[in-house]
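ok so heres the complex, four chains, lmk if somethin looks off
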Amino acid sequence: MTEHTHHDVCTNCTHEHSLGIAQDIARKSGHRWSETRTQVYHTLLMADKPVTAYELMDMVAKKYARDVKPASVYRSLEALMEIGIVARIESANAFVACQNPECNHQHIFLICNYCGHVDEISDHGINRQLLKQAAEKGFIARKQILELHGQCKDCHVEG
Amino acid sequence: MTEHTHHDVCTNCTHEHSLGIAQDIARKSGHRWSETRTQVYHTLLMADKPVTAYELMDMVAKKYARDVKPASVYRSLEALMEIGIVARIESANAFVACQNPECNHQHIFLICNYCGHVDEISDHGINRQLLKQAAEKGFIARKQILELHGQCKDCHVEG
DNA sequence: ACTTTATGTGTTATGTTATAACATCTGTTG
DNA sequence: CAACAGATGTTATAACATAACACATAAAGT
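and the predicted structre for the whole thing:
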């Protein structure tokens, strides 16, 4: 398998590979790993679109034939978000596996209202401008939640 | 009272005035008005920070000595949002009265993690750039959710 | 190796946010 | 004033999220 930086541009990438990366990042940032986290993360990767905690719970329960409870799922999600490989879509009360776990942690989400798919883009210029605009009001921005709702490429024709 | 365009820069503004504006906007856009909407909107104006639907329900119940139910509050909020005078803060599951009901409907919210206050800024340049970035991915953005969390001016000293 | 400590999990219960469904009422229009 | 669209009241329930406590396990120090 070739070396690469961006997960989303690598057609060779398997979920196992993502999992490996995830564990690396976790260890480097002083987080532990666990079976539940593996299952939750893997399930999110497979989903390839935002999934609510309860949906995720059912998916994990079915896939691994075990009884998972809400608290467990939320705890795993919290850890995965701290590690930086999962993000919460605020406007959907749902979660997605990040497309670029290795690079920036400032996402702009493109959420299709038709098919539900989520794309992730990145523009540090915009992030900087937002910081600046906020600063002019005396506001120090620590986190930016940027979510665009609309119509994705694949939904143009029918839409 | 002097004429003005921006509600937030007018020190003369009363909530009654905001209410008048609200009703005008409602009628112009083909919405009806009602006592419940008046109460919900007025309570939100007084709050001057994001309030959850259930908090709002309790506030209205207490203030107007009546028994309001969740469904009623949510219905009023939905209408007020359609009219464009109330906005939802997605990352807080809460609602605020817009500072500039008359002008643009594209807000950037600055949410203080310490005092909970929300400020509303506006930058069409950023909105345009986001549209453009999205368009490059073949995505037509209809709505932008822009919420910055951090530390406001008043919370710098202690923070 | 063995204790200590911090971290993660299982479980139960409950809190919080949001909507569905259906009957009733009210303002607007013709 | 009839007919209709739009609001409301009410009940019930769905969907999302966390608190609290007991127990288990991995990492770090001795």
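quick notes: Residues 32, 34, 52-54, 70-71, 74, 93 of chain B lie near DNA strand C (CB under 10 Å from a C1'). thats all i got rn
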